[in-house]
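Dear support,

I submitted the protein below through the web form. The confirmation email said the job was done, but the results page showed an empty box. After a refresh the structure appeared. I'm attaching both so you can tell me whether what I see now is the final result or a partial one.
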Amino acid sequence: MSNNEIVQKLWNLCDVLRDDGINYADYVTELVLLLFIKMEHENAQSGVMLGHKLPEGARWPDIAKLDGPNLLTYYKATLLGLSQSTDPLISAIYADAQTRMKEPRHLRQLISAIDSIDWYSAQRDGLGDLYEGLLEKNATETKSGAGQYFTPRPLIDSIVALINPQAGETVQDPAAGTAGFLIAADAWIKAKTDNLYDLNEKQRSFQRNQAFIGMELVPGTRRLALMNCLLHGMEGDEQGVIHLGNTLGSAGSGLPKSDIILSNPPFGTAKGGGGPTRDDFTHKTSNKQLAFLQHIYRGLKPGGRAAVVLPDNVLFEAGVGADIRRDLMDKCNLHTLLRLPTGIFYAQGVKTNVLFFDKVSQHATGSTKEVGVYDLRANMPRFGKRTPLTRAHFAEFEAAFANAPPSPQPLPPDGAGAKTATTPLSLQGRGAGGEGETSRYRSFSREWIRERADSLDIAWLKDDNAEDAADLPEPAVLAQEAMGELEGALAELQAILAELGEAE
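What the results page shows now:
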Protein backbone atom coordinates (compact mmCIF):
# COMPACT_ATOMS: atom_id res chain seq x y z
CA MET A 1 0.00 0.00 0.00
CA SER A 2 1.45 3.37 -1.06
CA ASN A 3 1.59 6.45 1.14
CA ASN A 4 -1.06 8.13 -1.03
CA GLU A 5 -3.39 5.17 -0.53
CA ILE A 6 -2.82 5.25 3.24
CA VAL A 7 -3.46 9.02 3.32
CA GLN A 8 -6.73 8.49 1.43
CA LYS A 9 -7.73 5.70 3.84
CA LEU A 10 -7.03 7.95 6.83
CA TRP A 11 -8.95 10.81 5.22
CA ASN A 12 -11.91 8.48 4.69
CA LEU A 13 -12.05 8.03 8.46
CA CYS A 14 -13.42 11.57 8.59
CA ASP A 15 -16.75 9.95 7.65
CA VAL A 16 -16.73 8.29 11.07
CA LEU A 17 -16.07 11.64 12.73
CA ARG A 18 -18.89 13.23 10.76
CA ASP A 19 -21.24 10.52 11.98
CA ASP A 20 -20.30 11.59 15.51
CA GLY A 21 -21.22 15.20 14.81
CA ILE A 22 -17.65 16.48 14.31
CA ASN A 23 -17.43 19.59 12.13
CA TYR A 24 -15.46 19.47 8.87
CA ALA A 25 -12.97 22.04 10.16
CA ASP A 26 -12.14 19.83 13.17
CA TYR A 27 -11.55 16.60 11.22
CA VAL A 28 -7.77 16.79 11.04
CA THR A 29 -7.25 17.98 14.62
CA GLU A 30 -9.52 15.23 15.95
CA LEU A 31 -7.87 12.61 13.79
CA VAL A 32 -4.24 13.56 14.50
CA LEU A 33 -4.71 13.65 18.27
CA LEU A 34 -5.35 9.92 18.08
CA LEU A 35 -3.11 9.21 15.09
CA PHE A 36 -0.06 10.77 16.73
CA ILE A 37 -0.32 8.29 19.62
CA LYS A 38 -0.22 5.44 17.10
CA MET A 39 2.62 6.96 15.08
CA GLU A 40 4.64 7.69 18.23
CA HIS A 41 4.34 4.01 19.14
CA GLU A 42 5.43 2.85 15.66
CA ASN A 43 8.38 5.27 15.52
CA ALA A 44 9.55 4.33 19.00
CA GLN A 45 9.35 0.63 18.07
CA SER A 46 11.34 1.16 14.87
CA GLY A 47 14.00 3.41 16.44
CA VAL A 48 13.16 6.61 14.52
CA MET A 49 12.57 8.18 17.93
CA LEU A 50 15.07 7.72 20.70
CA GLY A 51 12.56 5.97 22.94
CA HIS A 52 8.97 6.88 23.72
CA LYS A 53 7.97 10.53 24.13
CA LEU A 54 4.58 9.60 25.56
CA PRO A 55 4.42 8.29 29.16
CA GLU A 56 3.29 4.80 30.12
CA GLY A 57 -0.48 4.59 30.24
CA ALA A 58 -0.84 7.05 27.36
CA ARG A 59 0.63 4.88 24.64
CA TRP A 60 -1.19 3.16 21.82
CA PRO A 61 -1.42 -0.36 23.39
CA ASP A 62 -2.92 1.19 26.55
CA ILE A 63 -5.76 2.73 24.55
CA ALA A 64 -6.20 0.10 21.82
CA LYS A 65 -6.92 -2.72 24.28
CA LEU A 66 -10.02 -0.99 25.70
CA ASP A 67 -13.62 -1.07 24.47
CA GLY A 68 -17.06 0.23 25.39
CA PRO A 69 -17.74 3.27 27.60
CA ASN A 70 -14.42 2.78 29.41
CA LEU A 71 -12.57 3.45 26.16
CA LEU A 72 -13.96 6.96 25.62
CA THR A 73 -13.59 7.83 29.31
CA TYR A 74 -9.98 6.63 29.34
CA TYR A 75 -9.16 8.49 26.12
CA LYS A 76 -10.56 11.76 27.45
CA ALA A 77 -8.55 11.35 30.66
CA THR A 78 -5.44 10.53 28.61
CA LEU A 79 -5.73 13.75 26.59
CA LEU A 80 -6.19 15.76 29.79
CA GLY A 81 -3.16 14.09 31.37
CA LEU A 82 -0.99 14.77 28.31
CA SER A 83 -2.01 18.44 28.30
CA GLN A 84 -0.73 18.64 31.89
CA SER A 85 2.49 16.69 31.23
CA THR A 86 5.70 17.80 32.90
CA ASP A 87 7.37 17.36 29.51
CA PRO A 88 7.00 20.84 27.97
CA LEU A 89 6.98 19.44 24.44
CA ILE A 90 4.19 16.94 25.12
CA SER A 91 2.17 19.52 27.06
CA ALA A 92 2.57 21.93 24.11
CA ILE A 93 1.40 19.31 21.62
CA TYR A 94 -1.65 18.44 23.69
CA ALA A 95 -2.39 21.91 25.09
CA ASP A 96 -6.18 22.30 25.44
CA ALA A 97 -6.61 19.02 23.57
CA GLN A 98 -9.99 17.40 23.93
CA THR A 99 -12.11 15.08 21.88
CA ARG A 100 -15.59 16.07 20.75
CA MET A 101 -16.53 12.46 20.15
CA LYS A 102 -19.60 11.27 22.03
CA GLU A 103 -19.94 7.63 20.95
CA PRO A 104 -17.41 5.03 22.21
CA ARG A 105 -18.24 2.85 19.19
CA HIS A 106 -17.01 5.55 16.82
CA LEU A 107 -13.72 5.81 18.72
CA ARG A 108 -13.43 2.02 18.63
CA GLN A 109 -14.07 2.15 14.89
CA LEU A 110 -11.27 4.69 14.40
CA ILE A 111 -8.80 2.64 16.48
CA SER A 112 -9.61 -0.56 14.58
CA ALA A 113 -9.28 1.18 11.23
CA ILE A 114 -5.92 2.72 12.17
CA ASP A 115 -4.68 -0.64 13.44
CA SER A 116 -5.69 -2.28 10.15
CA ILE A 117 -3.36 -0.06 8.12
CA ASP A 118 -0.21 -1.65 6.71
CA TRP A 119 2.18 0.19 9.01
CA TYR A 120 5.15 -1.72 7.63
CA SER A 121 4.57 -0.07 4.25
CA ALA A 122 3.99 3.26 5.97
CA GLN A 123 7.30 2.94 7.83
CA ARG A 124 9.13 2.30 4.56
CA ASP A 125 8.33 5.83 3.34
CA GLY A 126 8.41 7.36 6.82
CA LEU A 127 5.52 8.13 9.11
CA GLY A 128 6.44 11.78 9.01
CA ASP A 129 5.84 11.88 5.26
CA LEU A 130 2.54 10.08 5.78
CA TYR A 131 1.49 12.65 8.35
CA GLU A 132 2.54 15.50 6.07
CA GLY A 133 0.53 13.94 3.26
CA LEU A 134 -2.53 14.07 5.49
CA LEU A 135 -1.95 17.77 6.18
CA GLU A 136 -1.62 18.46 2.46
CA LYS A 137 -4.78 16.48 1.79
CA ASN A 138 -6.57 18.68 4.31
CA ALA A 139 -5.25 21.79 2.56
CA THR A 140 -6.42 20.65 -0.87
CA GLU A 141 -9.85 19.63 0.41
CA THR A 142 -10.64 22.64 2.60
CA LYS A 143 -9.02 25.39 0.54
CA SER A 144 -9.45 27.76 3.42
CA GLY A 145 -7.78 28.87 6.62
CA ALA A 146 -4.21 27.69 6.99
CA GLY A 147 -4.61 25.48 3.94
CA GLN A 148 -5.30 28.52 1.81
CA TYR A 149 -1.60 29.25 1.52
CA PHE A 150 -0.22 25.75 2.03
CA THR A 151 3.13 25.77 0.26
CA PRO A 152 3.20 23.06 -2.44
CA ARG A 153 5.76 20.38 -1.69
CA PRO A 154 7.41 20.51 -5.16
CA LEU A 155 8.14 24.21 -4.60
CA ILE A 156 9.54 23.54 -1.12
CA ASP A 157 11.74 20.72 -2.42
CA SER A 158 13.07 22.89 -5.26
CA ILE A 159 13.90 25.78 -2.92
CA VAL A 160 15.64 23.51 -0.42
CA ALA A 161 17.71 21.87 -3.17
CA LEU A 162 18.90 25.27 -4.40
CA ILE A 163 19.68 26.62 -0.92
CA ASN A 164 21.49 23.32 -0.15
CA PRO A 165 21.50 23.28 3.68
CA GLN A 166 24.46 21.54 5.31
CA ALA A 167 24.88 19.67 8.57
CA GLY A 168 25.93 22.11 11.29
CA GLU A 169 23.97 25.05 9.85
CA THR A 170 21.00 26.58 11.64
CA VAL A 171 17.76 26.80 9.66
CA GLN A 172 14.86 29.07 10.61
CA ASP A 173 11.29 29.58 9.44
CA PRO A 174 9.69 32.59 11.17
CA ALA A 175 6.23 31.69 9.80
CA ALA A 176 6.48 27.94 10.18
CA GLY A 177 2.91 26.76 9.57
CA THR A 178 3.08 22.97 9.72
CA ALA A 179 6.91 23.10 9.37
CA GLY A 180 7.13 22.04 5.71
CA PHE A 181 10.32 24.01 4.96
CA LEU A 182 12.16 22.84 8.08
CA ILE A 183 11.23 19.21 7.55
CA ALA A 184 12.35 19.33 3.91
CA ALA A 185 15.67 20.89 4.96
CA ASP A 186 16.12 18.15 7.56
CA ALA A 187 15.34 15.47 4.96
CA TRP A 188 17.87 17.03 2.55
CA ILE A 189 20.64 16.90 5.18
CA LYS A 190 19.74 13.35 6.20
CA ALA A 191 19.93 12.23 2.57
CA LYS A 192 23.45 13.71 2.33
CA THR A 193 24.67 12.17 5.61
CA ASP A 194 23.24 8.62 5.50
CA ASN A 195 20.40 9.59 7.85
CA LEU A 196 22.96 11.41 10.10
CA TYR A 197 25.06 8.24 10.57
CA ASP A 198 28.02 9.97 8.84
CA LEU A 199 28.06 12.46 11.74
CA ASN A 200 29.44 11.96 15.22
CA GLU A 201 27.12 11.90 18.25
CA LYS A 202 27.64 15.58 19.06
CA GLN A 203 26.76 16.54 15.50
CA ARG A 204 23.70 14.27 15.49
CA SER A 205 22.51 15.81 18.74
CA PHE A 206 22.90 19.28 17.20
CA GLN A 207 20.76 18.25 14.21
CA ARG A 208 18.02 16.83 16.43
CA ASN A 209 17.89 19.59 19.01
CA GLN A 210 19.48 22.82 17.74
CA ALA A 211 19.69 22.96 13.95
CA PHE A 212 16.06 23.93 13.29
CA ILE A 213 13.81 26.56 14.79
CA GLY A 214 10.50 28.04 13.73
CA MET A 215 7.77 30.26 15.10
CA GLU A 216 4.02 29.93 14.64
CA LEU A 217 1.31 32.28 15.87
CA VAL A 218 -1.68 29.90 15.83
CA PRO A 219 -1.64 27.27 18.64
CA GLY A 220 -3.57 24.66 16.62
CA THR A 221 -1.20 24.94 13.68
CA ARG A 222 1.79 24.78 16.01
CA ARG A 223 0.38 21.56 17.46
CA LEU A 224 0.37 20.01 13.99
CA ALA A 225 3.89 21.32 13.34
CA LEU A 226 5.31 19.90 16.59
CA MET A 227 3.79 16.51 15.82
CA ASN A 228 5.16 16.71 12.30
CA CYS A 229 8.68 17.49 13.52
CA LEU A 230 8.71 14.73 16.15
CA LEU A 231 7.57 12.16 13.61
CA HIS A 232 10.53 13.21 11.45
CA GLY A 233 12.97 12.78 14.35
CA MET A 234 13.33 16.54 15.02
CA GLU A 235 12.98 17.37 18.70
CA GLY A 236 14.28 20.94 19.11
CA ASP A 237 14.78 22.59 22.49
CA GLU A 238 12.44 22.27 25.48
CA GLN A 239 9.77 24.18 23.54
CA GLY A 240 10.19 21.92 20.53
CA VAL A 241 11.32 22.94 17.05
CA ILE A 242 8.37 25.31 16.62
CA HIS A 243 7.93 28.02 19.25
CA LEU A 244 4.56 29.66 19.87
CA GLY A 245 4.58 33.39 19.28
CA ASN A 246 4.31 36.30 16.88
CA THR A 247 7.48 36.85 14.87
CA LEU A 248 6.36 40.42 14.25
CA GLY A 249 6.08 41.01 18.01
CA SER A 250 8.52 40.81 20.89
CA ALA A 251 8.85 37.02 20.55
CA GLY A 252 10.33 37.43 17.07
CA SER A 253 13.13 39.70 18.25
CA GLY A 254 14.34 36.81 20.41
CA LEU A 255 14.82 34.40 17.51
CA PRO A 256 18.53 33.69 17.00
CA LYS A 257 20.35 34.77 13.85
CA SER A 258 20.51 31.86 11.45
CA ASP A 259 22.63 30.53 8.61
CA ILE A 260 19.52 29.84 6.51
CA ILE A 261 15.99 31.24 6.57
CA LEU A 262 13.24 29.66 4.47
CA SER A 263 9.68 30.94 4.71
CA ASN A 264 6.30 31.60 3.15
CA PRO A 265 4.94 34.38 5.40
CA PRO A 266 1.17 34.84 5.72
CA PHE A 267 -0.48 37.12 3.20
CA GLY A 268 -2.58 40.15 4.17
CA THR A 269 -2.25 43.28 6.31
CA ALA A 270 -2.17 43.84 10.02
CA LYS A 271 -5.86 44.69 10.11
CA GLY A 272 -6.73 41.08 10.81
CA GLY A 273 -4.59 40.99 13.95
CA GLY A 274 -1.11 39.70 14.56
CA GLY A 275 0.41 42.75 12.93
CA PRO A 276 3.90 44.14 13.44
CA THR A 277 4.56 45.50 16.92
CA ARG A 278 8.36 45.15 16.93
CA ASP A 279 10.31 48.24 17.92
CA ASP A 280 13.59 47.02 16.41
CA PHE A 281 12.53 47.38 12.76
CA THR A 282 14.10 50.31 10.96
CA HIS A 283 11.17 50.68 8.58
CA LYS A 284 7.72 50.75 10.19
CA THR A 285 4.94 49.13 8.16
CA SER A 286 1.54 47.50 8.62
CA ASN A 287 2.24 45.19 5.68
CA LYS A 288 2.98 41.75 7.14
CA GLN A 289 5.05 40.53 4.21
CA LEU A 290 7.28 43.62 4.24
CA ALA A 291 7.71 43.24 8.00
CA PHE A 292 8.60 39.56 7.63
CA LEU A 293 11.07 40.43 4.87
CA GLN A 294 12.79 42.84 7.27
CA HIS A 295 12.98 40.16 9.95
CA ILE A 296 14.45 37.67 7.47
CA TYR A 297 17.30 39.72 6.05
CA ARG A 298 18.08 41.17 9.49
CA GLY A 299 17.98 37.69 11.03
CA LEU A 300 20.59 36.16 8.73
CA LYS A 301 24.17 35.74 9.84
CA PRO A 302 26.82 37.32 7.56
CA GLY A 303 27.18 34.83 4.72
CA GLY A 304 23.75 33.41 5.45
CA ARG A 305 21.26 32.68 2.68
CA ALA A 306 17.51 32.92 2.40
CA ALA A 307 14.57 32.09 0.16
CA VAL A 308 11.20 33.68 0.88
CA VAL A 309 7.84 33.44 -0.90
CA LEU A 310 6.21 36.86 -1.30
CA PRO A 311 3.24 38.28 -3.22
CA ASP A 312 3.64 40.74 -6.09
CA ASN A 313 2.77 43.82 -4.04
CA VAL A 314 6.02 43.48 -2.07
CA LEU A 315 7.91 43.92 -5.33
CA PHE A 316 6.36 47.22 -6.35
CA GLU A 317 4.83 48.90 -3.27
CA ALA A 318 6.09 52.50 -3.07
CA GLY A 319 7.10 54.48 0.02
CA VAL A 320 8.25 52.21 2.84
CA GLY A 321 8.12 49.23 0.46
CA ALA A 322 10.80 50.82 -1.74
CA ASP A 323 12.84 51.71 1.37
CA ILE A 324 12.81 48.08 2.51
CA ARG A 325 13.79 46.77 -0.92
CA ARG A 326 16.70 49.24 -1.05
CA ASP A 327 17.79 48.18 2.43
CA LEU A 328 17.59 44.53 1.38
CA MET A 329 19.72 45.13 -1.73
CA ASP A 330 22.27 47.04 0.34
CA LYS A 331 22.70 44.49 3.12
CA CYS A 332 22.27 41.41 0.92
CA ASN A 333 23.06 40.17 -2.54
CA LEU A 334 19.57 39.70 -4.00
CA HIS A 335 20.78 37.45 -6.79
CA THR A 336 17.61 35.68 -7.99
CA LEU A 337 13.88 36.35 -8.26
CA LEU A 338 11.55 33.56 -9.36
CA ARG A 339 8.11 34.59 -10.70
CA LEU A 340 5.82 31.72 -9.72
CA PRO A 341 2.84 30.50 -11.74
CA THR A 342 -0.57 31.87 -10.81
CA GLY A 343 -2.82 29.43 -8.98
CA ILE A 344 -0.28 27.05 -7.42
CA PHE A 345 -1.50 28.07 -3.99
CA TYR A 346 -4.97 27.04 -2.91
CA ALA A 347 -6.00 30.69 -2.91
CA GLN A 348 -6.57 31.00 -6.62
CA GLY A 349 -5.34 34.10 -8.37
CA VAL A 350 -2.63 35.00 -5.86
CA LYS A 351 0.53 36.05 -7.71
CA THR A 352 3.71 35.15 -5.86
CA ASN A 353 7.47 35.12 -6.18
CA VAL A 354 10.50 33.64 -4.47
CA LEU A 355 13.35 35.96 -3.52
CA PHE A 356 16.76 34.34 -3.10
CA PHE A 357 19.41 36.41 -1.35
CA ASP A 358 22.66 36.11 0.62
CA LYS A 359 23.52 38.30 3.61
CA VAL A 360 26.73 40.30 3.26
CA SER A 361 26.70 42.45 6.38
CA GLN A 362 24.26 44.43 8.48
CA HIS A 363 26.27 47.51 7.60
CA ALA A 364 27.04 46.78 3.95
CA THR A 365 25.98 49.00 1.07
CA GLY A 366 25.68 48.21 -2.61
CA SER A 367 25.72 44.45 -2.11
CA THR A 368 23.38 43.69 -5.01
CA LYS A 369 24.93 44.28 -8.44
CA GLU A 370 22.52 42.37 -10.66
CA VAL A 371 19.25 40.48 -10.13
CA GLY A 372 18.52 37.39 -12.18
CA VAL A 373 14.79 37.05 -12.85
CA TYR A 374 13.23 33.78 -13.95
CA ASP A 375 9.67 34.02 -15.29
CA LEU A 376 7.83 30.78 -14.54
CA ARG A 377 4.47 32.56 -14.77
CA ALA A 378 3.99 33.57 -18.39
CA ASN A 379 2.50 30.93 -20.69
CA MET A 380 2.29 28.27 -18.01
CA PRO A 381 -0.60 25.81 -17.62
CA ARG A 382 -3.36 26.30 -15.06
CA PHE A 383 -2.27 24.14 -12.17
CA GLY A 384 -4.78 22.19 -10.15
CA LYS A 385 -6.01 18.62 -9.73
CA ARG A 386 -6.01 18.03 -13.51
CA THR A 387 -2.53 19.53 -13.98
CA PRO A 388 -0.64 19.11 -10.70
CA LEU A 389 2.51 21.10 -10.05
CA THR A 390 5.55 18.80 -10.00
CA ARG A 391 9.26 19.15 -9.35
CA ALA A 392 9.84 18.75 -13.10
CA HIS A 393 8.28 22.18 -13.69
CA PHE A 394 11.25 23.72 -11.85
CA ALA A 395 13.94 21.80 -13.76
CA GLU A 396 14.95 24.58 -16.17
CA PHE A 397 14.96 27.15 -13.39
CA GLU A 398 17.14 24.94 -11.21
CA ALA A 399 19.57 24.43 -14.09
CA ALA A 400 19.83 28.17 -14.73
CA PHE A 401 20.22 28.85 -11.00
CA ALA A 402 23.04 26.31 -10.77
CA ASN A 403 24.91 28.05 -13.60
CA ALA A 404 24.95 31.40 -11.79
CA PRO A 405 28.30 32.47 -10.31
CA PRO A 406 29.07 32.01 -6.62
CA SER A 407 27.58 34.30 -4.02
CA PRO A 408 29.79 37.12 -2.66
CA GLN A 409 31.88 36.46 0.39
CA PRO A 410 30.49 37.97 3.59
CA LEU A 411 32.07 41.08 5.04
CA PRO A 412 33.17 41.22 8.66
CA PRO A 413 30.21 41.96 10.99
CA ASP A 414 31.51 45.45 11.62
CA GLY A 415 32.38 46.24 8.01
CA ALA A 416 30.50 49.53 8.00
CA GLY A 417 30.52 51.29 4.67
CA ALA A 418 32.53 48.57 2.97
CA LYS A 419 31.90 47.66 -0.65
CA THR A 420 31.14 44.18 -1.94
CA ALA A 421 32.82 42.54 -4.87
CA THR A 422 30.33 40.53 -6.87
CA THR A 423 30.40 39.07 -10.33
CA PRO A 424 27.48 39.98 -12.62
CA LEU A 425 25.10 37.09 -13.12
CA SER A 426 25.14 37.35 -16.93
CA LEU A 427 22.11 35.09 -17.10
CA GLN A 428 20.47 36.56 -20.17
CA GLY A 429 19.32 33.91 -22.56
CA ARG A 430 21.12 31.00 -20.89
CA GLY A 431 19.42 27.65 -21.25
CA ALA A 432 15.96 28.88 -20.41
CA GLY A 433 13.88 28.35 -23.51
CA GLY A 434 15.09 31.21 -25.65
CA GLU A 435 17.58 33.99 -26.17
CA GLY A 436 17.50 37.55 -24.83
CA GLU A 437 13.96 38.85 -24.60
CA THR A 438 12.48 35.42 -25.35
CA SER A 439 14.36 33.74 -22.50
CA ARG A 440 12.64 32.96 -19.24
CA TYR A 441 15.82 33.93 -17.37
CA ARG A 442 17.37 37.40 -17.71
CA SER A 443 19.53 39.61 -15.54
CA PHE A 444 18.95 43.25 -14.68
CA SER A 445 21.52 45.63 -13.28
CA ARG A 446 21.10 47.38 -9.96
CA GLU A 447 21.33 50.70 -11.79
CA TRP A 448 18.44 49.75 -14.08
CA ILE A 449 16.33 48.72 -11.08
CA ARG A 450 17.19 51.96 -9.29
CA GLU A 451 15.94 53.97 -12.28
CA ARG A 452 12.59 52.20 -11.93
CA ALA A 453 12.12 53.44 -8.33
CA ASP A 454 13.62 50.19 -7.03
CA SER A 455 10.64 48.18 -8.26
CA LEU A 456 11.27 44.46 -8.67
CA ASP A 457 8.04 43.85 -10.54
CA ILE A 458 9.89 42.85 -13.71
CA ALA A 459 8.24 41.07 -16.63
CA TRP A 460 9.14 40.92 -20.30
CA LEU A 461 7.49 37.80 -21.75
CA LYS A 462 4.12 38.23 -23.44
CA ASP A 463 1.62 35.98 -21.68
CA ASP A 464 -0.75 34.54 -24.25
CA ASN A 465 -3.10 33.56 -21.43
CA ALA A 466 -3.48 37.09 -20.09
CA GLU A 467 -4.83 40.31 -21.55
CA ASP A 468 -2.22 42.95 -22.20
CA ALA A 469 -3.30 46.26 -20.72
CA ALA A 470 -1.60 48.01 -23.64
CA ASP A 471 -3.96 46.27 -26.08
CA LEU A 472 -7.14 47.24 -24.22
CA PRO A 473 -9.43 50.01 -25.55
CA GLU A 474 -9.58 53.45 -23.98
CA PRO A 475 -11.35 53.66 -20.59
CA ALA A 476 -14.28 55.55 -22.13
CA VAL A 477 -14.78 52.77 -24.68
CA LEU A 478 -14.65 50.11 -21.96
CA ALA A 479 -17.19 52.06 -19.89
CA GLN A 480 -19.52 52.34 -22.87
CA GLU A 481 -19.23 48.62 -23.54
CA ALA A 482 -19.99 47.83 -19.90
CA MET A 483 -23.00 50.18 -19.97
CA GLY A 484 -24.29 48.46 -23.11
CA GLU A 485 -23.99 45.03 -21.47
CA LEU A 486 -25.83 46.26 -18.36
CA GLU A 487 -28.61 47.81 -20.42
CA GLY A 488 -28.97 44.58 -22.36
CA ALA A 489 -29.17 42.57 -19.13
CA LEU A 490 -31.83 44.94 -17.72
CA ALA A 491 -33.86 44.61 -20.91
CA GLU A 492 -33.78 40.84 -20.63
CA LEU A 493 -34.91 41.02 -16.98
CA GLN A 494 -37.75 43.34 -17.95
CA ALA A 495 -38.86 40.88 -20.63
CA ILE A 496 -38.88 38.02 -18.10
CA LEU A 497 -40.96 40.10 -15.66
CA ALA A 498 -43.37 40.97 -18.47
CA GLU A 499 -43.87 37.28 -19.24
CA LEU A 500 -44.59 36.68 -15.57
CA GLY A 501 -47.04 39.56 -15.52
CA GLU A 502 -44.93 41.47 -13.02
CA ALA A 503 -43.67 44.29 -15.24
CA GLU A 504 -44.54 47.83 -14.19
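Response: this is the final, complete result; the empty box was a page-load delay. The CA atoms of residues 46 and 123 lie 8 Å apart.
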